[in-house]
Write a structure and sequence with these properties.
Number of strands: 9
Structural class: alpha/beta
CATH class: Alpha Beta
Strand order of the largest sheet: 5-4-3-2-1-9-8-7-6
CATH superfamily: Aldolase class I
Largest sheet: 9 strands, parallel
Order of helices and strands: HEHEHEHEHEEHEHEHEHHH
Distance between the termini: 63 Å
Number of domains: 1
Helix content: 40-55%
CATH topology: TIM Barrel
CATH architecture: Alpha-Beta Barrel
Amino acid sequence: MNKAEVCEQIKKIGIIPAIRVSSAEDAHFAADAVTQGGIPIVEITMTVPQAVELISHLVRDHDKLIVGAGTVLDTETARKCVDAGAHFLTAPGFDVSIVEFAAKANVAVFPGAFTPTEIVAAWKAGSDFVKVFPCALGGPQYIKSLKTALPQIPLIAAGGVTQQTAGNFILAGATAIGVGSDLIPSRAIEHREATRIRELAHRFAGFVGDARRLLEPPKEEPKKTKTDFWKFHRHANPGKP
């Protein structure tokens, strides 16, 4: 899957599940459950033990799954992730060297930023999206304000997205949302509740879909013509000219 296809899928699906757990086994379980729930994207954070090896494993065994690397804080780690097959790189903050590395490697990248100055700098450096992190501090209204001033920059809202706010971030203008524990609860991981994670995946997909439908422009009624009028007249008054 090339960079353009990855970016298109992120825009289409609109949800990036962030997997931040205490073991590679837990992460693998979470990735499988989210995928079975209809979200073929996972972000494996570098805080997960053996994260790079897990990325390699997931990429090798799931050809239609978009596997990204999260919390990538330096170019050495970025290189290891790309070598393992990561489809995108992301982090809580903005490091221009990582963005430049990703551009040269032709891998999608969306660093974290919060202020308008940081967001513009990340975009100008070559980011494919900019992750507004932590979005909970400003809420959907902050995303809306950013999109009003910077409509050309595709924003991903991450860091505090919940079931209650997911749709509102999309309505505010976010291209996608990054979701962590509200989609992959620690209890569901601990007790291997795959059904619970699948249900949550369906629910978040529904929030995004419903919000996007509300943003669609209303369909215009086709204009009536004289021919339409006479067809209706004959149908309503059979036998009359």
